[in-house]
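Sequence only, no structure available. Ideas?
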Amino acid sequence: MSRATMTSKGQITVPVDVRRDLGLHVGSRVNFVKTAPGVYQMVPSRSIKDLKGFFSWSGPPVTLEQMDEAIAQGAVESMGER
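Reply:
I predicted one. C-alpha cells follow.
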C-alpha cells in the first residue's frame, strides 16, 4: 500500500508507484469519484485524444449519414430483442 501526506495547502504528492500504475505524468489531471460515503477513487482524467490509434477501421470511409443510419438500425434491432 502506498501512502502520502497532505500539506497545509491541501497538496499531496502521488507516490511514484501509483503514478506509474495510473500512467500519470507532469500535467496529468485526475478525477476524484465518490464511491461510498467517505470513500473516493482517484481516476486519471482521460482525453478523447488518448484514444487516437486505439481503434482501427480497414474498410472504406463512411459518411456521417451512414454512421447515423447504422446507429439507428442498431437501436431498432436492440429494442426488438427485449
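Strands lie at 30-36, 39-44.
Hope that gets you unstuck.
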